[in-house]
Amino acid sequence: MSGATATLWAAPRLGAAPEDDQRAALPSNAGRSLRLAHITDVHVQPELGAARGLAQCLHHVQSQPDAPQLILNTGDSIMDAIEAGADRTELQWNLWQKLLRDECSLPLEHAIGNHDCWGLNRTKSGTTGREPRWGKQWALEGLGLASPYRSFDRAGWHFIVLDSIEPYQDTYRARLGAEQLDWLKTDLASVPKGVPILVLGHIPIVSPGAVLNGVKETPDHNLELPGALTHLDAKPIHDLLRRQGNVKLCLSGHLHLVDRAEYDGITYISTGAVSASWWKGIRLERFDYGYALVDLFKDGTFHYQFVSYGWRTVASEG
Predict the structure, then answer these.
(1) By residue range, what is the domain housing residue 117?
(2) Number of structural domains found in the chain
(3) What is the pTM of this model?
């Protein structure tokens, strides 16, 4: 493979049966460093068959003929903790942890999603903001994390996990904040020359899907994009990534759709949701229940494929 970010793009196939799904043959894996699965926006809950759906997704990942060695999960693991009380939040995290224990044998690396943060809406959740697990602490425990952002090295690649969620006025917005931005600058500077970098986080840094599905015209005929859809600090983040010179791929979720943007040699991809339209059907009539398979190569190139895992919407169940 040649070029800065040589990729193949596989769009969702709607209506594929589990035995006739997206298990397409990949290009030669010569020079491959790592194969990973990217899951996002699981939104696990007792209702709508979500637990069985996640189990089916994990089985599908692990039964690939050329199985991945790692799963990246970019958040919204549980249905919602922003407006949920303590009992409902505990139920969701217990269900999440049980499913991973029982159904998954692969290592996982997690990022925090907005719906994983407990009690941001104090009125609806009945919180005060002073509870020990308020905000991101319960999510850190539920995901087994010591910090909401971090980095690690695997198979010759450097991975950076960002925390996209900034609590704001009983909800959230997408921003790293000064402390995390400084940390990112330091971490990028520490990566040896020539080592390719993959960045993951919940909310997209750059996303055409957010623009096409979220922009509204203002009364003075300008376009306005909500700060909860993509990063408000997209430019300073991108500028840091660009100056580093070897950031190849940024993976995110949040929007429950599949999109891709390329700029300054960096590819930004949003992977459609495991839960599609929050377990209620296909998102925007074309984005199926799915996950991504990503192959990382020694030369910094990659192969990306969206995979529908065969789940179909079920009636509500508790």
Answers:
(1) 32-307
(2) 1
(3) 0.91
